[in-house]
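Readers of this paper often ask what the protein records in our data store actually look like. An entry from our holdings is shown next, in its original layout:
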Amino acid sequence: MIARSLLLAGVASASIFASSVHAEEAPAPAADQAAQVDQAANPRGDVIIVTARRRAETAQEVPLAISVIRGDSIEATGNFNVVKLQQLAPTLQVYTTNPRNTSVNIRGLGVPFGLTSDGFEQGVGIYVDDVYNSRVAAATFDFLDVNQVEVLRGPQGTLYGKNTTAGAINITTNQPTFDFEGRAELSVGNLNYRQAKAAISGPLSDTVAARLAVAATSRRGTLYNVTSQRWINEQDNLGIRGQLLFRPNDDLDITLSGDYSRQDPECCGTTFVRVGRTQRPLNRQYDALAAAQGYVVPSRNPYDRLTDLDSNLNAGNKIGGVSARIKWDIGPGTLTSVTAWRFWDWKPENDRDFTGLSIVSRSQNPSQQDQYSQEFRYNYESQKIDFVVGLFGFKQRIDTQGTEQQGVNAAQWSLAPSTNPLNPANIPATLAGLTASNTQYLKAESAALFGQLSWKVTDALTLQPGLRLNYDKKSGFYQRVVTNAQGQAISCTPTPAPGTIAGTSQQCGVYQPQVSAPSDSAWNFTYDFNVNYKVARDILAYATYAKSFKTLGINQNGLPLNIDNTVNYDAATVKPESVHHFEVGLKTQLWDRRATFNISAFRTTIKDFQATVNGGQFGTVRGYLANAEKVRSQGIEADFKVVASDRFTAYANAAYTDAKYKKFTNAPCPPELSGGPSQPSGVPADYSQPGVPGAPSPRQCDISGQDLPGVSKWAFSYGAEYNIPVTLLAKEGQVYLGVDGNYRSHWNSNASPSRYTEVKGYALTNFRAGFRGEGFDIFGWVRNAFDVNYIENLQVAPGNTGLIAGQVGDPRTWGGTLKFSF
């Protein structure tokens, strides 16, 4: 088999990168049949088989917006996890400050931007071999022996076990084979980059096959910490996956899978980016506070890649599980059962004040998750009718033990400055050692009946309705105990409870004890309807309407306070989202199927959008969920791919996304309007003007009409590859040169858009060149070839001081890769 890594892109109303299907083993006999039918009409053999609709079919036949990226293209372009995948799929947005605080959105929708809470659902589902991964931390792990990734855009509730409102990422790994095969790959590069991958597959008997795959990645960090004298934000990944396939006859497949991955990097630190003016008095803003303590950051230029964080950093992360998938062909249909258990252990350490001062000396919220899922599906296919009907059950528990502690610089930083040496602000012991210890758990259960029908009214016209009935129940517990430096529990009520002592006003202004036990449940009935029409042999038009939902949420990280300093228990639960989605699209194949051009337009409106509200304090309530009245995302996506010859391929993809808060009247204020005294009753908030420092500022702002965070209006990706047949060192093969790149326009990195958290647009360009032949591929690569300076994420430091910290993107990296297969 000649190893293929030609980048073929742009199919199915989104980018598609692939090599010829005849170079890979199809995942199932149905896929072989689909490929044979399409290849009969397309002798080039550039056929992409997808399972997005729970059956094998060619991508151009799927009447929905989907991106398909094959495993060899992922490797060639260096996009080794979902976070990096957004460089290939323009409508995918992935932002991460650490594995837990990761946002995976499609078209600007999915999860609230900001601090992550366990109490809400993901809007973009991540599936690996049909198993739903409930926590988005899975997005930060390396792809492990992946065959292809399908990115589905728009609500996915009538074909997938777990309902998702924005889309799904369907990852398919390479399966065990009854022909012996193997592969190995080694990459090295600058920044001490090392990556090794290997996989082996073959028969154990006439009816049993096995596959084993391992991968390891390490790289020096990209940010230098002058305090610890170490490079931080490194990569340190290890993963292993094993599979057993039992095939007693042609009608039955039983696949047992197990996987384990771990990360243990010194991560995830930030660097100083800028300072903005807030509503605090000038002597309580960042520059004055830093000067009062003689503090100077190592650099005010973030691209010097220097920081001085003084707290321990860690992003210890373990994820894994086992599953059993049974596929049984029963006459005209297939019965599938997927049983799975997965775990996720998270052991973080953070520097929450983003400075080299000991303001917050400890900040960590380790958690342990167990999830169980069971899905049954029956797929029926006939000449006129196809349908999928399924049952899904899901159970999850997450336990978290949080600790946040004030340091020796906290009092002078957080309390009102005074020249009196006896003032509490000038006595480090006022806050030093003050500790908030949080104990919490979440229990979540979900069950669903779902199905979708495809009725071929004529050879050209197909009607496709779908239904879903869903039940969710969530219950949680949260307790915060506050202790002073002597370990005594403090109370912030006028009459301290037994076993506690009265806290000072300064201590209670930072941490307050709290107990809550939110619980709720909800039924939801949703549906979608798709009409698709084959205008000609190679032109498919489609239109879709979906009424979807995101189920209720609960606030699992503590509740906000009312104006009178009492706990707002009304905020314990968050209403479900109500989603209306419209989409039209056109899929075409041109020039004797040497090229594809696909275009889609969409409009999604969400009532009671679940948004993140970030508190300005260090520890009382860092962030919680609330409902924005209405959100709308609309846009156009276009994709083009051409296979001009066996020598040259190219693709170009573009997306325009206009995502806004249509109505959000009780949003958190941006930093330029935060930090002053409470807004007097009846005085409106002027969002557009920063106001006068020290003047009254609102507790909430009306940000209706503002853009959703994390979304670029314009996004592009492109790539091309050219090869020449040659003979080198008595080896026949191809010398090739490839280029790929992407562009994203500016976007905002705060839940309430701020002038201080505007991230400039940027364009990245990557090159690769190599020689490949029968069973081998050796190539060199350069990523971010022009060493573009760009920001991946900005964060508003707590305390309303105006400090903006951030994570800078990777600099230019280069290296080489050697691959062997047999």
